[in-house]
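Model it.
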Amino acid sequence: MNDSQVNAVSDAEDGETRYRLHRRFDRMGRLVGDAKMERLFASHVLVIGLGGVGSFAAESLLRSGVGRLTLVDFDRVCVTNSNRQLQAMRGTVGKLKAQVLADRLALINPQAQLEVVPRFYDAATSELILARQPRPDFVIDAIDNITAKCHLIAACKERALPLVSSTGAAGRCDPTALRIGDLAETRIDPLAQEVRKILRTKYGFPQEGSFGVHSVYSVERPRDPIELHYDDGLGFSCVCPGGKNEHHSCEERRLIYGTASYVTGSFGLFCASVVVNSLTGVQGS
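Modeled.
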């Protein structure tokens, strides 16, 4: 290694430089080239819902070079998140999911601009969340609340904000059953079916033809949950930090489906691929 190379490495280790930024994403750059990497560095993506899907989506976006992320989730890490959410580790239970994830992402790319919004997305907070500046280049919908999900999809459509929506990821075991397509053309998934119905009846989406909304969905039918016996027959008891709140209660859920990290994570990675490929104009084979 010559003196100039030694100095470049030393400068990079002493502080964050443009050289170091590019070195960090060298392997992504070799896929898409310098100009498209500059596009990613300058992009702003809004990720709403940071569970088993959204946490993987956000991290994949950051590792792909997206320079600004706004992370939206009101919830706190629960020990039951450990099987599928990147934030769920020893020492993080009870902490805000959005903040824990932001702290993790800052270690991956210290030059990224990360905004934490610990709010629940709904009609009341929509304007606050979607009006972020600079205007988001893309939105990822990783919400599991159907009312909030439908409102978000409709609001993004009205604002002409590009969006990719994750449909039901729970109750599945086969990541190879995932598909990417227009939300109007999804099939098999009961959650997607309900979302389509609400969008058409409440928000005026077309009865026929495409919605113009990207979606990630599975053609695997969800499996019913299996009763477990580790609790000596007492049944599931909510252990969420803070217990029941106005947005979520384990006791009020009719079913608590099983989840596999390699499926929920794949949903997130598929969502990230839609965003990155759309922003760069890169098409798969």
